Amino acid sequence: SPTHPTAADGELVAIGKIVATHALKGEVRLLPFNPKTELLTAGRRVSLRRLGEVRTATLTAARRQRNVFVVRFDDCPSIDAAEALVGCEVCVRRAELPATADGEVYH
Fold first, then answer.
1. Could you say which DSSP state residue 88 is in?
2. 20 and 30 in contact (C-beta within 8 Å)?
3. Kind and range of the H or E element at 95?
4. Residues 6+ apart with CB under 8 A from 1
């Protein structure tokens, strides 16, 4: 996946964080910052951000499991690959976010 410099970070908004691996086939547990999010769906392009590095990935599967989502990315075929993603923020472009209600803000 392409890695790009942090100059593009300003237009990205974190929607969750990868907190653990799940099983052995490359799935991860993602803690959403908004438990009611509808942005975590198969086919969505996201940015994975950690320590100033950003790379893109596509969600190939996503399902709710209690307070987290169990997700899989197109370039994450194994638990070893999944372990490397723990700690990454999952981001989308600000323009992809739903409109806010009066008094609501994204941060």
1. P
2. no
3. none
4. 55, 56, 57, 75
Residue 41 carries which side chain, given as an amino acid letter? T
The number of angstroms, rounded, from the C-alpha of 7 to the middle of its chain's C-alpha atoms is 19
Pair 86, 28: CB distance under 8 Å:
yes
Q: Which distant-in-sequence residues (6+ apart) come within 8 Å of 17 by Cβ?
A: 30, 31, 33, 87, 88, 89, 90
Pick the closest to residue 91 from 56, 63, 61, 64 (CA basis).
Answer: 56
pLDDT per residue, tens digit, the chain (107 aa), is: 444 444 444 589 999 999 999 998 999 999 999 988 999 999 999 999 999 899 999 999 999 999 999 999 999 999 999 999 999 999 999 888 877 667 665 55
* Phi, psi values for residue 6, rounded to 5°: -75, 0
